[in-house]
């Protein structure tokens, strides 16, 4: 018999996983891991209105924003050849970070679907879907954590030194500041590990006596707080 079980714990688990997935996606695609010093342009000659509209150069894992002569302030990719892009343009450490972030994002996206699947199925291939999803979420969290560790290892690259100053080195951004993308990834990690823990509680919540009684009575939609 087909039935759907929704509990408050399973709903929190789904929302936590979904938000973590979105935050990791934002961290991956946005060029705000490192923010360049000050504002672009000459502050001494800029009017207050013009100065307010100027923006700082920044760089992400595979994207960057900078002032260009003909295009103005432009954001785009610099990994034009993917992982085959020259190391002086796309540091090896950032390529590894890109792989880890992408892996984490794929795993998290799969677990979002798995959290929905658990509403109507509790096991697959003789294994608990909750436990398998929790393992996948832990692996996703580790992958994203590795990416956040690998990105600072590439701060000695010429690209970063042009943006942040010649003193930039691994884990020291010199004149740059850490951008919102890095913090999105960090919060995404915390939510991913939290979701892995909540999954165990969600499984026991779905197996409560009240839920089983409703299912045995023939209810196809079971919603219990």
Description of the molecule:
The protein has 225 residues and is of the alpha+beta class. Helix content is 54%, strand content 13%. It contains seven helices and nine strands. It has helices spanning 8-29, 48-53, 92-117, 129-153, 158-164, 180-206, 209-216, and strands at residues 4-7, 34-35, 58-59, 63-68, 72-77, 123-124, 127-128, 177-178, 221-224. Strands 5-4-3-2-8 form a five-stranded antiparallel beta sheet. A two-stranded parallel sheet has the order 1-9. β3 and β4 (63-68) form a beta hairpin. α1 runs antiparallel to α3 (92-117) and α3 packs antiparallel against α4. The longest helix has 27 residues, at 180-206. Mean pLDDT is 82; it is low at 39-53.
- State the oligomer: single chain
The radius of gyration computed from the alpha-carbon positions, rounded to a whole number of angstroms, is 23 Å
Outline the biggest β-sheet: 5 strands, antiparallel
Q: State the end-to-end distance.
A: 23 Å
**What is the overall pLDDT average?**
82
List its salient traits.
13% strand, five-stranded antiparallel beta sheet, alpha+beta, 7 helices, 9 strands, 225 residues, elongated, 54% helix, two-stranded parallel sheet
